[in-house]
Amino acid sequence: MELYDVMRTTGAVRRFTDDPVPDDVLERILDNARFAPTGGNRQGTHVIVIRDDKTRKALADLSVTGARRYTAQVKNGEYPWNPTKPMKVTPEEVAATAAGPYLPFMYCGAVLLICVDLNVCAAFDQHLDRIGLIAGASVYPFVWNVLLAARNEGLGGALATVTVAEEPRVKELLGIPEDYAIAALLPIGKPVKQVRKLTRKPVSEIATRERFDGEPFTAG
Fold this sequence. Notes:
By secondary structure, this protein is an alpha+beta fold. The protein is 32% helix and 12% strand. The two termini are 30 Å apart.
């Protein structure tokens, strides 16, 4: 596919057919995705390819914690898991909420769990009084490359993070070292319905000249 077409049609896919994703296709996806930039070119990413049904079921079970709160907050009109706005629903309300539509997509062609070695991340924002973001620069370009490469292969996936709410238990399940962080779970498979066109805000609404409150950026 042409690059811009891939970029404009790589949406989140959460419903998959039963078609398998062969190892050679997954290897080709990862072989191309690995050229994503990382801080200092230290390449601290690690991918776990998960096909075993018992492991997937365990991951789905561990996703319930995050999914319940996500669903409860959405139903309450909140931005779920937001780091600046305190949760308004009670723990009792969260516990009584069904997990929502976030777990079935664990069952697809393959699940990729992507970790990053914190020993090689330059977290320039670690002392700021806000949630840390910068360390993600050493892993999320790779994650997005995986999704772009999957789209190019006629496959789809979704950048899922709900399981990270139970990161210690996921690490124990998969033997992940303590100094690694879980960045994403990517279900990969053949979409039931392929995304053809995505809707996004225009450039004039997301870019400004010179300052955050500057004039909208347009070519004209």
